[in-house]
Amino acid sequence: MAGRIPQYFIDDLLTRIDIVDVIDNRVKLKKTGRNYSACCPFHKEKTPSFTVSPDKQFYYCFGCGASGNALGFVMDHDHLDFPEAIDTLAGQLGLEVPREENPLKQRGPDHSELYNLMDRAVDFYSRQLKQHEQSPRASHYLKNRGLDQQTCQHFAIGFAPPGWDNLKKELATSPEKEQQLITTGMLVKNEDRNTVYDRFRERIIFPIRDSRGRYIAFGGRVLGDEKPKYLNSPESPIFHKGKELYGLFEARQANRKLSRILVVEGYMDVVALAQQGITNAVATLGTATTSDHMQRLFKVVPEVIFCFDGDDAGRRAAWRALESTLSNMQDGRQARFLFLPQGEDPDSMVRKEGSESFIERIKSQAISLDNLLFRELESELDLTTMDGRARLAKLAQPYIDKLPEGLFRQLLLKKLSDRTGLDTHYLEAHFQESARTRESTTSRPEPETQNTPSGQDEPFHHSHYEAMPFFDADYEERQYTPEEHTNHTAPETSRRLSPTRQTNSARLVTSGYAIRQLLCNPEFAQEVSEPFDNLKLENDSDSKLLIDLLTILKKEPSLKTSTLIAQWYGTEKGERLQALATLDHGTTAHRDEFLETLAKIRKKHNEAHNHNEHSSFLISSLQNKRPSQLDEETRKKYLELLESKRRSLNYKESGSQLPKE
Prior knowledge:
The protein is α+β, with helices and mostly antiparallel strands. 46% of the residues lie in helices and 11% in strands. It is globular, with a radius of gyration of 30 Å.
């Protein structure tokens, strides 16, 4: 059914649905205190680490990090997209899902006819593999490649027979149908000769599905050694090769608890591996691995393994894959690279040594992303020399800059520090300064953007956020001690905050901590006075998200945690909220801590604002003047600014002086 699902219905649905009932219908839950637990349905484990909180209407796995609300669970567990999951939950409550038209946004085109034609093309090619007089050639080829009938049927493999108009005669029954087939790339129109003919002729046909299982394109392989060996459907309204992956739908259907995906180079590699029981392989569609590919893969699994030939072409493909992976390497994700012996590919290798040996090869020989990165960067450097180490730092910088903030980035910096002998803090500061320099030389005024009431349509980038772990093992329920009442001179054993909790006291200044409290206690928003502009911190990327949450909760104070996250579900902003919501707060609502946090944030904002104004005043006052020409008030402010800067840099020398004449 066409039309956008209104946000009010999604909010109401998540308010009425009980996550315990939703999950218990799919995974048997056991009551454990206030929560429920079970073995995680998303990874293999013997001891239950999957927890469902009826209070927060949220689930979290301490083993694999899977987390979300009822809607997210149904999407991931049942392999459904967003609208299908909404339909499923609504059906459980006997509700009909409304659809609305957005008057400000034109409805997208209806491609149902194109999908129908692709389904009919799949049927046509499948029949030709069984019935055409040339089909024995195709069947013989597939048998020689080790494929049986069951595997061919599973992947809907077919045969495009010789001839220029077989598919055209079958499906182009009207001018409209012919044009639709041209649009999908199944037919090709020669403008010079004004002729239309089949794109695929005398080839093995591999249908390509999207994430919903719809057929969207085809790949064709010649039976002999003619060129080109592989031919793919062109870009079309329903097919974008830079985003789709061959075999991903089949892999998800074959593995309910998919934990890793193997990326290979060809259709036959995917099918041959599946024939041998390795059903988690996918392939790009005639393109290098893109960032969109990696974003899609990491939404499905936490680990991706690239398998390439060991020749120069394979190494170039691996390097392009590495570059596309860097921006998606959030904490908890892993990428490895396996290079096969010269002249081998996954298809030939798995038939030669069997699936068990091939899997063992992956375990023992696949190298990590960081090892491949440094191996390639260091290949022509002499690290025994200072200029070689400096060159390594220079070469590594653009790749480290691509990484999102988090533990993996810090570990990669530490590895670079070990190889160059440069301190990690110096490297970080140097990289940041270089980035600022580049930005200042290339910056242009950005167009004003309108604030959107909901994050559903707002572009959002995870790299804008500071990294925080999905679960803070140190944070648990404790008695709150206001800062002014804490005895900072007392020994550790007598403090109300234990040594392992000191980090939490420091986090009270961050917007991330305030968001965590607000998600579990939305009612706190009613105690926060407006305006919220003074909660925005220049170096705290969560502050904008905090302001957005407070703005929404001021208008709708009854919203729950799961409903709040649903406002931005499926966006990077939603992922950030989900990550913060999974952190354990205990049972006590720490209202005083929350308000103290906001007070500290506002204080930092005001200090930064005053400092900037102070600096601007001094710059204008000192412009074109000698120290002897300054009045006493300006001289005093100048000295205060210098002393403040010395303190911020931990500069020990005292006795600030004005510059001499």
